[in-house]
Design a protein that fits this description.
Layout (H helix, E strand, L loop, with lengths): L1 H8 L2 H6 L2 E2 L11 E2 L1 H15 L13 H18 L23 E4 L9 E2 L14 E4 L15 E3 L1 H6 L10 E4 L8 E3 L7 E3 L3 E4 L7 H8 L2 H10 L10 H5 L2 E4 L2 H44 L4 H12 L2 H4 L3 H16 L13 H13 L29 E4 L4 E5 L11 E8 L15 E3 L1 H5 L2 E3 L4 E4 L8 E3 L4 E3 L3 E6 L4 H9 L1 H10 L10 H5 L2 E4 L2 H41 L3
Parallel strand pairs: 5-9, 14-19
Antiparallel strand pairs: 1-2, 3-11, 4-10, 5-6, 7-8, 7-10, 12-21, 13-20, 14-15, 16-19, 17-18, 17-20
Length: about 575
């Protein structure tokens, strides 16, 4: 056992430093990364527990078969009294996942209680009553070894009796027959009212012959979950049947050892909780430090002050920028510095912003495609009076002054001739958070493009509705886009510079401030195109874009190194876990 404890305690740095970036899909707990190492440590603890490697065996404590004999005796008494019906005969599985200590036994899940493992009740929506006094426990309430108490569904007493529902008892083990993860289990606590559970939650009702908490830990181990997943069926609703769930093999130690295993698991899980809090606090403190340091950059009053502030940060670069989140914050700081004129020098021989607007008017005179509004004449007198100050030679203008703006459109779905062409059709899902256009789900024909809005290389697109409001990208190849996206086609100057403006903290804040709707924010085109944007001379626009490209390439290389380092930490955690097999 000494080696096992060393495996857990002597590699705490690996467990706490192994993190993974979370998928952006689905709901989560708000964290952008998962603490992979600690997750693997929890799995390791349970795997050691069910293999008999977490605590020492004591032959004086008897055998696992003694537990099974006591349960069988209890079941026989219940059968004799008529309290239960004779269970259906099952084909006993001969294969077990691995060898266990000599005084342990294997048993199927249904044989670990005198009562049969059973489904919850089939409760349809029409059977529910928000004013009812009987709580309906659902899948969302069942966590991994934790009752989550999330749902708020009820039935009334009349329905409870009419449907002959199974009342839950305190101490029942609830097992989820659907993801995620499938087969997770928890103990049902006293919630102060009568309760039943939905059909997708199985009920295991153990008695004093076995430790409830040991069963919960065992069912939540990878040993049990792999068996559950092997039985799982269904592409859209992956599930395990109750019959197959009954046949899951569980290792059974003597009862006294079960209690010692539970005590040790609880102790080590408490250690994991502490490590998790420590890791989360460290990540938060690190991100706060990064944001504070970068704020000194973006608040610099001059290029000279920026240089001084950056010199202080550069000395600790390898300590500050160690995560993808910190690099993302640095990326945003670079964007904000770029559009405020602090990233490059101003030159006296640059052309004037007036020359920029002459170029815009010249482009305007050549004509514009249908559905696009022309760049508006100078609206300088309508600009906000509380805009930040700009470097010498720069001016504020409204977005509509730099080029033609437009809103997207969607052809009617009934018009089959508009679809299945070769022109990519973009929606908010095709604009990534890092400013790229992803592969589309749909394509339009030329007819479809005329019923939508065309995007050409150099156009800047921005999502203007929903949870992804503010995402933007530059069009690289001809496309069309739907009505949830607005666009601007810069008539002169560097499109890449104006894309930086749209990605800046300033512009993103104004978009959200002007958006209406709390649940689904939306900014209409007139409000969007009237947002003020900074205009430097064309030559400086080009210098800014070149400098930003240079810095972004540095960030890209650093990001690759960070991802490789994190992958190594994950691999180390996985390797340590595999040592027990």
């Amino acid at each position: 056992m000494k080696d096992v404890n060393q495996l857990i305690t002597e590699h705490l740095d690996i467990w706490t430093s192994s993190i993974e970036k979370k998928s952006s899909a689905g709901r989560g707990d708000g964290r952008s990364v998962s603490l992979h190492g600690i997750k693997k440590l929890r799995e390791l603890i349970l795997e050691l527990a069910v293999r008999g490697k977490l605590v020492a065996q004591d032959e004086l404590e008897g055998r696992g078969q003694d537990v099974l004999d006591a349960i069988a005796k209890h079941r026989k008494a219940l059968l004799a009294s008529g309290a239960i019906k004779k269970p259906k005969r099952r084909n006993q599985a001969s294969n077990v996942p691995f060898f266990v200590p000599e005084n342990w036994s294997w048993a199927e899940l249904d044989d670990l209680t005198p009562w049969q493992l059973t489904d919850g009740d089939w409760i349809e929506k029409k059977d529910q009553d928000p004013q009812g006094g009987v709580r309906l426990i659902q899948l969302a309430d069942v966590g991994v070894a934790e009752f989550l108490d999330k749902s708020e569904r009820f039935v009334n007493e009349a329905t409870f009796h009419r449907l002959k529902c199974t009342q839950l008892d305190e101490g029942d083990i609830l097992i989820a027959r659907l993801p995620n993860p499938i087969g997770r289990a928890c103990t049902f606590p006293d919630i102060g009212q009568t309760a039943i559970t939905a059909v997708d939650v199985a009920i295991l009702r153990p008695t004093e012959e076995v430790s409830r908490q040991y069963l919960v830990w065992a069912i939540n181990s990878n040993m049990a979950r792999l068996q559950v997943e092997a039985f799982g069926k269904g592409a859209t609703r992956f599930r395990i049947s109750t019959g197959n769930l009954k046949s899951i093999n569980i290792p059974v130690p003597p009862l006294a050892e079960q209690h010692r295993i539970v005590a040790k698991v609880d102790e080590l899980m408490a250690l994991c909780d502490a490590l998790e809090r420590q890791a989360e606090d460290s990540l938060k403190a690190h991100q706060t430090l990064v944001e504070t340091c970068l704020a000194t950059l973006t608040n610099s009053g001059s290029p000279e002050e920026l240089t001084q502030n950056w010199t202080r940060i550069e000395a600790h670069f390898d300590t500050l920028f160690t995560t993808e989140e910190s690099l993302s914050a640095l990326w945003q700081a670079i964007v904000d510095l770029a559009v405020s004129g602090l990233l490059t020098e101003q030159r006296a021989n640059d052309s004037s912003v007036g020359d920029f607007f002459k170029a815009v008017r010249l482009a305007q005179s050549s004509g514009l495609p249908k559905k696009r509004s022309k760049p508006k004449k100078s609206l300088g007198n309508l600009l906000s009076t509380d805009l930040p100050s700009l470097p010498s030679g720069w001016e504020w203008a409204q977005l509509s002054e730099i080029g033609a703006t437009s809103t997207g459109g969607t052809p009617k779905s009934s018009d089959k001739e508009s679809f299945s062409g070769d022109v990519p059709f973009l929606g908010p899902g095709q604009l990534s958070k890092d400013g790229h256009i992803l592969d589309p789900d749909k394509f339009l024909t030329e007819r479809g493009v005329t019923n939508s809005t065309e995007g050409l290389p150099g156009d800047i697109l921005m999502v203007c509705i929903g949870g992804s409001i503010g995402k933007s990208a530059i069009v690289l190849e001809r496309c069309a886009f739907n009505q949830q996206i607005n666009s601007v086609r810069p008539a002169a100057g560097a499109a890449n510079f104006f894309h930086l403006v749209l990605q800046s903290s300033y512009f993103q804040k104004v978009v959200l401030d002007r958006a209406t709707g709390s649940a689904t924010p939306i900014i209409n085109r007139s409000k969007w195109e009237s947002i003020s944007v900074p205009i430097p001379p064309v030559e400086e626009q080009e210098r800014i874009v070149a400098r930003v490209d240079e810095l972004f390439e540095l960030l890209r290389r650093t990001s690759i190194e960070i991802i490789a380092s994190q992958a190594l930490q994950v691999q180390l955690a996985d390797t340590l876990t595999s040592k027990i097999h």
